[in-house]
Amino acid sequence: MPNTPLHLFGGAITAIAPSNLLDASEIRQVPDTQEVLLFPDSSISIIVEILQRVEPNDNQDAIKFHFDSLAHDNDAVTSEVVSVNVIPNDRGDATPSIITLSGVQRVPKFNKTNPDEVRILMALYRVVSNGIDLVVTFNIPVISEDGGAVQGENLNQAQAQFDLFSRSLRIEDFGVFA
């Protein structure tokens, strides 16, 4: 699937993503502080969220806080952080460097006996001047009772899409955080 520039929050934020992503706001209600995108051929979702900056000043603690908050919101039975990395922004624009996290959560689904295992790929951009944490989350089910699991080469492709999306993300208009 070819990639294309994606305009989020009215073009205030851009990123490179697959051209066939579905905008979840056309299907269901999405808060103004979120953009939710769905892959049409799998159960992978992307959430881009503008949040108030969290207390931990340490970047690793901050992204772990967001991961733990997601686990809480998902009613995860277990959650585990696999890795945290910092990727400096060396493009010369004002977009902050990226803190990335890879983790796994086991999330119960309604009317299912076994929880789904979901690979979580998260990117955090700390916009200190505006008191904002911009969080990108790829939710990738790797074990699922409903047949939406992503494995093997498709999992590698999802990781590559996350890498491209998070590294290409650019804040074009910081006024979106006002």
From TrEMBL:
InterPro entries: Mog1, Mog1/PsbP_a/b/a-sand. Keywords: Protein transport, Transport. Coiled coil: none annotated. It holds the Pfam family Mog1. The keyword Protein transport applies. Belongs to the MOG1 family. PANTHER family: RAN GUANINE NUCLEOTIDE RELEASE FACTOR. This is Mog1p/PsbP-like protein.
